[in-house]
Amino acid sequence: MADAVIEEIDGRMVRVGDRWLADFASSNYLGLDADPEVIEAIPTYLRSWGTQPGWSRFRGSPVLYEQLESALSGLVGTEDALVFPTRTDIHLSVLPVLADSGSVFVDARAHKTIHDGCEVARGHGATVQRFRHSDPRDLERLLATSRSSPRVVCIDGVNGMTGNAPDIGAFATMASRYDALLYIDDSHGFGIFGERAPDELCPYGKGGNGVVRHAGEEYDNIVVVAGLSKAFSSVVAFVACPRWLKDVLKTAAPPYLYSEPSPIASLATALEGLKVNARRGDLLRLAVHRKTRRVLDALDSLGVFTPNASGHPIVELPLARPEDVDEVGLHLFHQGIYATIAPCPVVPPDEVGFRVQLTAATSDEQIEHLIEVLGEVSGRLRTLDRNRRLRLLKHG
Question: Can you give the pTM of this predicted structure?
Fold first, then answer.
């Protein structure tokens, strides 16, 4: 399942060689990659715009970009937004602009592309320091001794392995206290988590407008970055920001000035996906939540540990013995489960294992098959600690 060539797909089934497997490696959380309403809308855009404009955005920006930026800023709740092809483009070009010759404080477990952007910022004269994962007190230790300006704090909105979000409120408070900008990559949270409301259909909240709104925070000192390749199944990314920063980035971020734009199909997929989100996104999120809850409850019954405490559809499953990773991976493959294998050094030794992800397009039959196979390998997985077992028994 590393570097595999997928030769055919059918919903959430994939064919590798002559073997069909249930796909639990997909990040298309809302299932929009297979949504007929989205797919059928794309040809109209292609007939109007062709496959790809031949200009960088600085030379000529199709109005589709402006429409998408307006829709994104309206959903997230910021003054404006700026669209780039990928979040890697954003981290490598926007972080150095925000940091200038000041300081960057980055979560030690933030996404690799954030760390890459921090290294570019270092090359431009910024100081870079790491703090312990999801630990605002360790961040405060560093901020309290910093005399540089500006200051940028970088975190993930949702960790891409555990599915857990940090305490956004605590980080926002810490950044505000020390006059720092909080920079959040919410690629896994955007489209899943949203603002809380009495009429929400599930604990994810409403609207899918991200972890900041989910935490009830404002954007006074927060810049949000997200790729739409997860929940919205499109190769497009954006910065949600004030208008003055958007104007700065138009002249200071190299991808806007020089890079090829996103294909028209990607812009169309994002626009149509946001329309679907507005009409029935909460129902799709409810479906994902129910499917994820079914898997998490089954793991509890098996006594299997997962660090997922949020209910997000990323479910990490560490192995009791890291050296079993190849054997367990082969068993999953031969039993028709396509998952994301996490070996060392991709993850620390105590987290070696695999990750499964649920989507609105994952069938109930596929989930039951996954649970059956997890039961077969449960002896190789890490077990729940005693205190958690007692809590589960007490609360059913």
Answer: 0.94
